[in-house]
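Entry:
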Amino acid sequence: MQRPFRYDYSDIRPASFGKRLMAMVYDGLILVAIWLCVAILATVLNQGGVTSPLGRAALQSAQFCLSFLFFGYFWTRNGQTLGMQAWRLRVQTFDGQRLTWTQALIRFVTAIVSWIPLGLGYIWMLFSDERLTWHDRWSESCVVQLPRDALKKKKPSN
């Protein structure tokens, strides 16, 4: 089911590599805070340590799942994580709609794959005519730059 955004902007363009990178830094800092909270909670629940291989696997699984929930919630809700809001970026489908949870999952997992070969999946956008990363293509989504006055004058979409 396609869900339009609350506000529609006519003058959007593909996001630049630098702004995408800066939004990732912002979101990375938030993720580190989430991971630390999960690790502290796991340490408290395990009375001082997560030393067994099973305990470490459970902790890493919880951190992975919470990371997906963080991104999935923001991507499906308004297309913007907190870092993306700071840089006026939005992730959307190719036809300008919100992502579904399935697309968010594909985007999340394949974004990890894009990092594995030394970030080649991200750098790919610099050589692509459409300015799409690997995970943009695989999830059928794109990151766009919202206009500078996006926060001031919002036009309701139909």
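The chain has one domain: 13-150.
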